[in-house]
């Protein structure tokens, strides 16, 4: 594993646990391939956008968690 910036980790924790490990591994592989050694929110979002998932992708999970906790 590699270090994650606090805001990137917070966003990762919003992703459902069932896919979180896969997302973590793919993100860290992508970040390493880009020559970085820390996952930042900007890199995390960059990968999502490259995969066709915009900011609304993360917002959707955040909204679902709010519904469940509220």
Note the topology.
Blueprint: H1 6-13, H2 17-33, H3 41-50, H4 55-69
Question: Can you walk through the features of this model?
Answer:
There is one protein chain. With 70 residues, this protein is mainly alpha-helical. Helices cover 71% and strands 0% of the residues. It has helices at residues 6-13, 17-33, 41-50, 55-69. It is globular. The relative contact order is 0.17.
The poorly predicted ranges are: none
Sheet with the most strands? none
Helix proportion? over 70%
The first-to-last residue Cα distance is: 33 Å
Cα shape: globular
Oligomer: single chain
Q: Care to give the gist of this entry?
A:
With 70 residues, this protein is mostly helical.
Protein traits:
single chain; 70 residues; mainly alpha; 4 helices; 0% strand; globular
């Amino acid at each position: 594993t590699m270090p994650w910036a606090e805001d990137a980790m917070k966003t990762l924790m919003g992703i459902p646990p069932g896919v979180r490990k896969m997302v973590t591994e793919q993100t860290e592989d992508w970040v390493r391939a880009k020559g970085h050694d820390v996952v930042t929110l900007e890199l995390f979002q960059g990968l999502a956008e490259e995969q066709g998932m915009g900011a609304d992708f993360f917002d959707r999970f955040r909204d679902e968690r709010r519904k469940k906790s509220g």
